[in-house]
Design goal:
The protein is α/β, with parallel strands linked by helices and 515 residues long. The protein has three domains: 49 residues, no CATH class; 193 residues, Rossmann fold (3-Layer(aba) Sandwich); 159 residues, Dimethylsulfoxide Reductase, domain 2, CATH 3.40.228.10. Helices cover 36% and strands 19% of the residues. A seven-stranded mixed β-sheet has the order 5-4-16-15-14-6-7, sandwiched between helices. It has a four-stranded parallel β-sheet with strand order 11-10-9-12. A three-stranded antiparallel β-sheet has the order 1-2-3, with helices on one face. A hairpin with a 4-residue loop joins strand 1 and strand 2. The radius of gyration is 32 Å and the shape is globular. The termini are far apart.
């Protein structure tokens, strides 16, 4: 049977009307013809009769020559060590223990370096607390080499020297001393004993200094509930490995709930031991990673979860809470029965942003005597205070703030009441923001301090009460940057570096009985 199918090898053959293609096809295997006849001349290209081999040789040479010309770059000379450091062997990686505390992620980690350059972040399996690195922490090494990083301080959008920025801050702090106007520091959560001591010393030296901590993703209700009940602004800690039953009200603890890091204990508890593993009941409004891994997931809006939580508390302590019967009584009875069966092996957690709900959960766990519930050694991964932030904004708008110094925060982007903050910012005499990159807040202030990356910084960390870790630089500063704590020490007139300040703090307060 005859076939009418036609096959084409390239886009040019798809258009049979192209006279140049047709002519070249006919002349493809013709032997004699000089190359000079068709070089760079489209008008004479169709009438040439060069052979295929010469044509391809010419094209190949032309392409290679053009590529080589386009790829010329600067000559970089490598100078060998005169005296090679003993701990650096070219091609052999070194590992350094350090910590990350960027206001959102807190972890003890290992940094893999080659020839003095950090290239990879690993879990620190020897750390008792916070030894796991999530995806953001793993990727944070890339931000060290970010080409958009701030490479020095700025004043009104123009590069300046650090002496200029420091002189402006010192002069303002001096003029405000004894004044009714405040010097406000708005910072991220540090969870650092040394930085907490530094803020205390700064307030002692300047009575009108106030320090306000701001978290872009606030967990204010949980912090306030714990503070009201136990007198300390922190999170209750949970060890899900010890739990026989986990009842979660919208707490996505396999993700970033209360700083994350609960997935390790949870996974250990899910491994059958002696024929038993933990059971997980999850109530939530939207599908989450934690809900997807639960044994029983109940989809309920947050308002319904609050009702069930209140009724559950009443059911467990033998009182009537929540009024008359409702459509949720069956769920309450079932959960209460499972909790009574497990007793102290049960634990209840919640991610609801509601003070009453958080207080009820603390009361339930305390009533059960839950083995997975730890209030003696709470977590410090969030310290933000919404009430204090709103009070600061009100003072700014009223003209009661003479200087505002920010570090590690971007309130012009993340605050829900950004318009109020901007209005107040315009009424502050001196505004300074420390940051690693340009953002909405650095655009709005008078002075910008280029911050160190955490891999260029000294620091310490207390993720969980009584458990400490250190932060050490793994590379020299790549740009003209400065750590915020070093800047504060210079403003106080101290000749100490923050490294020396940390040594003092640890010698005086931490080394005895530290873990």
């Amino acid at each position: 049977m005859a076939s009418n199918k036609k096959y084409w090898k390239n886009e040019a053959e798809l258009n049979p009307g192209d006279s140049i293609v047709e002519a070249l096809k006919q002349n493809e295997f013709v032997e004699p013809i000089p190359v000079d006849d068709f070089l760079g001349d489209k008008e004479t290209l169709s009438s040439t009769s060069t052979n295929r081999r010469d044509f391809l040789k010419y094209v190949g040479f032309s392409t290679a020559a053009a590529s080589l010309a386009a790829c010329e770059g600067p000559v970089i000379k490598s100078i060998p060590y005169v005296v090679q450091p003993e701990n650096i062997v070219p091609g052999v990686a070194n590992f350094y223990a350090t910590s990350i505390a960027n206001g959102f992620d807190f972890a003890s980690i290992l940094i893999k370096t080659r020839e003095g350059r950090p290239i990879k972040i690993e879990n620190n399996t020897m750390a008792k607390v916070g030894g796991g690195a999530n995806a953001r922490v793993q990727a944070s090494v890339l931000s060290l080499y970010d080409s958009t990083r701030l490479q020095g301080p700025f004043a009104n959008g123009e590069p300046v020297e650090w002496t200029t920025l420091s002189a402006a801050v010192k002069a303002k702090m001096g003029s405000l001393k004894g004044s009714s106007k405040k010097i406000a520091l708005l910072t991220q959560t540090y969870a650092s004993p040394s930085t907490n001591r530094l803020m205390g010393d700064l307030k002692a030296a300047n009575e009108n200094v106030v320090h306000v901590t701001y978290d872009s993703i606030s967990e204010d209700a949980a912090l306030t509930a714990f503070e009201n009940k136990y007198g300390e602004r922190a999170f209750a800690d949970y060890d899900f490995e010890k739990a026989g039953l986990i009842v979660s009200f919208d707490a996505d603890f396999l993700a970033d709930w209360q700083g994350g890091g609960y997935d390790v204990g949870y996974s250990k508890g899910r491994v059958p031991k002696n024929g038993k593993m933990s059971r997980h009941v999850h109530l939530e409004a939207n599908m989450s990673l934690t809900g997807a891994n639960s044994d029983k997931r109940i989809a309920l809006r947050p308002s319904a979860q609050k009702i069930i939580l209140a009724k559950l508390y009443g059911k467990l302590n033998g009182t009537s809470v929540g009024g008359n019967t409702s459509e949720y009584d069956t769920v309450v009875d079932q959960i209460a029965m499972e909790i009574r069966k497990e007793g102290s092996d049960a634990v209840v957690v919640t991610g609801l942003d509601d003070l009453n709900a958080q207080m009820v959960v603390l009361a339930i766990n305390e009533m059960l005597g839950s083995r997975a519930f730890d209030t003696a050694a709470p977590r410090y991964t969030r310290q933000g205070n919404v009430k204090a932030v709103n009070s600061l904004i009100a003072d700014m708008k009223a003209g009661r703030v003479g200087a505002l110094i920010m570090d590690g925060v971007n309130p012009m982007y993340s605050l829900p009441n950004t318009a109020d903050f901007k209005e107040g910012l315009e009424k502050v005499d001196l505004t300074v923001a420390f940051s690693t990159n340009w953002n909405e807040t650095t655009e709005a202030v008078q002075y910008v301090g280029a911050s160190n990356h955490y891999l260029e910084s000294w620091g310490d960390l207390e993720i969980k009460k009584g458990h400490y870790s250190l932060m050490q630089p793994t590379i020299k500063e790549l740009f003209d940057t400065k750590q915020f704590q070093n800047a504060v020490l210079s403003w106080m007139g101290s000749d100490k570096s923050y490294y020396e300040y940390i040594k003092e703090t640890w010698t005086a307060n931490i080394l005895n009985g530290a873990d």
